[in-house]
Amino acid sequence: MATLRITTILLLLLLISFSTAAYVSGDNDDTKAVYQVLQGYDFPVGIIPKGATGYKLDNSTGKFSLYLNSSCSFSIDSYKLKYMSTITGVIKKDKLSSLSGIKVKVLILWLSISEVIRDDDELDFSVGIASADFSVNNFEESPTCGCGFDCVNANEKKLINRNGFVSSS
Ligand SMILES: *[C@@H]1O[C@H](CO)[C@@H](O)[C@H](O)[C@H]1NC(C)=O
Ligand SMILES: *[C@@H]1O[C@H](CO)[C@@H](O)[C@H](O)[C@H]1NC(C)=O
């Protein structure tokens, strides 16, 4: 019964988001709300890429679903990340757990990021068997699908690196 109800609610939400998308190409208040909720739990907005369209959150348990306008991939440093258009998990202050819908490519495997824990100024992304720490400062802004955190400066950076490489030889 409970499962049936949840399925119905999900279907309704899907219908609502589809019909909304058909008429308005972005409800700003709702879009911002997703990132504000993250900040309310002490997470920087940059752990979720641009393009969030809405969310569902059970206040008492922290169980949430978050919706992006499309699936999304980009790289941070040497890591390739992939976000599905629906991300689910449990959010508590400084801790995201039971995550589903975010993957990172490690060597040749796509692994699910299952947990993100904020420890002071560090974010710890865990795939269960391994984890990686990043400074919170990296996530002040949401990455853009495709080019991640460095869309505008991507070409400039390459040039600077090339010059540095030349001058050091
Ligand atoms: C999703 O949203 C982002 C940011 O608002 C926008 O740049 C992008 O074009 C959108 N993508 C689709 C497929 O609508
Ligand atoms: C969720 O909890 C916060 C306080 O913890 C409260 O201010 C807010 O109204 C609650 N929202 C809902 C939808 O229950």
TrEMBL record:
Transmembrane segments: none annotated. Keywords: Signal. Residues 1-21 form the signal peptide. It comes from the Eukaryota. This is DUF538 domain-containing protein.
